[in-house]
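Archive maintenance. Older records in this collection stored only the sequence; we are now back-filling the structure field for every entry so that each record is complete. The fields below show one back-filled record exactly as it appears after the update. Entries are processed alphabetically, and Right handed beta helix domain-containing protein is next in the queue.

ARCHIVE ENTRY
Title: Right handed beta helix domain-containing protein
Organism field: Streptomyces swartbergensis
Length field: 859
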Amino acid sequence: MLYTFGGSPADVLMTETGDVVPDYPLIIRRAGTGERVTALYEANGVTPIGELRTNGASHPQPGAVRTFKADDVTAIEYEYLDANGQPVRWYQPARELAADAAAKANAALPAAGGTMTGTLTHHTASDTAIAEASLVGAEAFDRYRRLANGEQQWGSGTAGRDVRLYRSGAKAMTLTAALYPDAVSLAGSRVFNVIGAIGDGVADDRAVIQAQLDAARDAGGGIVVLPPGRTYGVGTFLVVYDRTVIVAYGATIRAIGNSGILRNFLGSETFAGYSGHSGITILGGVWDGNAADGVVGTVTGMTNVLGFVHCTDVTVRDAIIRNTSSAHALEFNSTDGARVINCRFEGFRDNSGNGSRQFAEAVQIDLAKSGSSSIGQFDNTPSRNVTVHGCYFGPSSRLGPPGRAVGSHTVADGVYYDNITVTGCRIDGALQEGIHGYGWRRAVVADNVITGTGLAAVKFTVPDPASAGYALTPHSIDVHGNVIESNAAEAAVQVIGFATALYRGVAIVGNTSRSSGSVGFRADYCNGPILSDNIVDSSSSTGVFAQFGTDPVMSGNSVRNAGSNALNVTGCVGGAVVGNVVNGTTANFGVFVGQAGDGTSATDVLVSGNAITAPASAGIRLSTGAARCLVVGNRVRKGAGAATSALSMAASATGCSVLHNDFSGNGWSTSAAMSVSTAAPITSPAGGSGLPGSNIVLQLNAPSSATAANTTAETVIASGTIPGGDAVAGSAYRLVAHGVASTTGTPTLTLRVRLGGVSGPVIAQYAAVTTASAISNRGWRVEGSVHCISTGSSGTWAGGGALYHHLASTTGAAQHELTDAPITRDSTVDQLLVITAQWSVASASNTVAATAVQVQRAA
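Back-filled structure field:
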């Protein structure tokens, strides 16, 4: 007899990393014996197959195994070689047996619950042992049943182990190590199948479901299965007890009264600490809170859809919780060890009537406090060790998004919510914050996508000690890798403490904020916060902001089109603004350091290595209250911005140093580029305060050139401006001109370098050159330089220059000149550094022109 194999979506050969392997030869062996099977046929059962290979790369299903038949073989093992050349086997029963197995397994499932027998084990693909079991855990059973019906395959090859689940015969099954890492005995375990429910979403099925939850309780725990394809109406809360798994894949449970759906306590129970009903798992299901919106829904009160209190070890996975009225879709109160995995939270309505529940969290992390916990004891036991991963938060088909996606809004003296992680979630709008860590400590918020929140996307706060009467000082807050867009108000991410409740160990790193309605990233009252490698695009206010606290670090951020200061440090002691890139501010400055609104100064802040383009005002501002700050190695370019200076300083910005910055290329004079009021900073490594000191202000890259012809008058042919106030003692300027000359006859040509225009003192005068007869466009070059000895209205200068030419003959010549004594020129006003030319004979044919001119500050 021929049996059928391959040809299903499960039959794809993949590497350990999940890549398909096309056009690969497969060896077929008889399962359990290792005997090679060679009698293979195409799906028609007639055409022999010489060599079985996976589909080629060009096939619509590359790497898949096509349908084939084998003679007198009921179960096979495919064999192929892994990356190390070692054989790996992949077990598969004949398709004809799988259908029979499914029917027998369905028949074996008890109608209203019963005791499982046998054991559940695992093995690698090369292990031919097959476990015997009449029933397995609900998840494994469900996976098996779907696989047996040809619906799906689970997993891919991992470290030479097969991750798939198969059925062979009426009772035997294989479960491999990657799916269930430990061998599990299910002898004596119980499954409780909910039967007798109407399941039309109108009738109250609570009693039928509760009977099975009670039966699981009485048995010491078990698996309660809500069969799929029905909508179970629940008039008031169901109660789940210890060591219970609720499997609700494909089922809908709807509140049809005026309460939530499920909780782990009776109203008459009280517990201390984490001693309540624990070890609870919810798998799948649509849990519809059915909040009334005036047209649809029955629930108008403030009620959680699912709630857990005074407990440990709670998992909610693959569930959809929607249409919450006024309270929380899922509350963890005084819960140690909660996991919310791959769930969807859809729809919320504030039915308070006065808008007082706009803050309500979809997932609330809470503590046992009167007014916050549904039952006693009110011993302030906090929730801790909570993981929310891979979840969605947003509107439902008829209601809007939650008040907050995840958060807390209650604290107590000396109590923290420890070890909270929110990762990989999608938050599509919230009335207030996306995530609010109120009193959280050792928390991670990472790799979430958050859009359209009414306030901050991510916010960490503590109570005001002045009103609370106590101070919480959380630490270890990690916010990284989040993508945030269009939060309407507050910062996209903000961590805000108080003067007597400082946060420590705050890292806001590698996040992206776009179109924030306020600040991009903000840390207030934090000790040593790190705000680094973030991207801010078009914030309506400051890009990155640190206020109060100590030693903030802003590094590697990219801020574009900030509505106010791109980078702002106020009221902080210490800190560094290093290596950031700024491109455009609508108002204010690229980097702002100064006094906070309460008058607290910013001291000892380092501003270094930042690249600032197109600020609306100065590139860097040392404002009132900025003291002992060091500004070094930054670059400021005016670009398309309206800035009138690269650096500005308030008169009260004292003890600051401004060194080795590049403020050039902007056309500013020194006094404009460095607007320092009456508080001149230290500008040179030697401690001098003259401007610009070691800073580069003007490279004079727009010099002028001209031609001298048909005249014997001394004429300027090249010039550049040394701005008034630019020079300090030791400054040096260089003027270089390249040109050509043509003559008739053999006139003489005299070239000079002067400071102060054509009538200014001579820096260098070269001996008259008698040209060769009737030359045409012969080349010459003059290099003149001048350095400042002293400044002021009677400033002293010295200089010199060199002339290189090819005017007199076919052999080039050179002349070098130096001033024989210092000259006097006013350094406080603009001075022209020029090259002049003078002919001995006026003729239209005697021309000399500077064709390329450069003047720059050399020191």
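Update note: DSSP finds five helices and 75 strands in the chain. The longest helix spans residues 95-108.
Entry marked complete.
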